[in-house]
């Protein structure tokens, strides 16, 4: 039964929980982390890490997409970002770094991003970026917004994209636009020969709707990062991640029964700052996590110590700040696998996931989704 609370006369609201509100319960068995597997697959593509990058220019360049792929994850480049609009992205990043130094104007960074994204998308630039990733041999993934999915996707597929990510702050099965045909995701996905990951969603019903479109994966959340994402302040919309992931996992189970065996992957995007959050997201039912801000600590992250989401560049209603990233820097491999000299869970992110699985006695991700949970409050 849903936990409803009365918030005023005649109005109730559901009590929901974030990742900080839950804890993983150890079981009667433990095992060595050496015999734990973090592998997963989506469609025909296999990965050693349950890691998909949040598609922001702050952490994903063609080079870092390749590096993530070589380390076992999936790097997702933003097909509407800086690499699609500017031939010299290094100059664009330098402008952002200079704007960050303007302490008297806190809006300067977002204004620069808006200006940079006002440049038109150039298919030759994004094609070249995708070519760089494709030639490395890793899986090629690119993100488009619902508004531009129909327009950009044919060219992205010609360039070599193997997994398409249709992502916005909130994505529904049908996106209605003024003066344009609505994007019907079921029809759109049905015409494609590549798997599509779509989101974000925050509840059971919308997750189920997206699963019924034929999506191979559903993104839960909208990349919320404390101090960066401001969707809750701007729109009043928030996603308590633990509850949202569990609801989407329930939709996945019901859809599996409904279709007689079609499994749709759940990707958690947001609310994860440290390795324990990653473990809790998987424990709540996610098949993989979509990480943004935690990867900004990588010394080769293109944001050069800054982090933002794509929503920061919206021309009239930005919903993300451009914020300083972590005050430490390690190479990407160390960030993901250690070793770490930090005791706060910000380095060796997936070594910690393996250890959490081992300490609770589970050998793979699907088993770990059945681990016990408690609520703090």
UniProtKB/TrEMBL annotation:
Residues 18-307 form the IMP dehydrogenase/GMP reductase domain. Gene3D superfamilies: Aldolase class I. GO terms for biological process: GTP biosynthetic process. SUPFAM superfamilies: Inosine monophosphate dehydrogenase (IMPDH). Keywords: NAD, Oxidoreductase. GO terms for molecular function: IMP dehydrogenase activity. The keyword Transit peptide does not apply. Belongs to the IMPDH/GMPR family. This is IMP dehydrogenase. It comes from Amycolatopsis xylanica. The lineage of its organism: Bacteria, Bacillati, Actinomycetota, Actinomycetes, Pseudonocardiales.
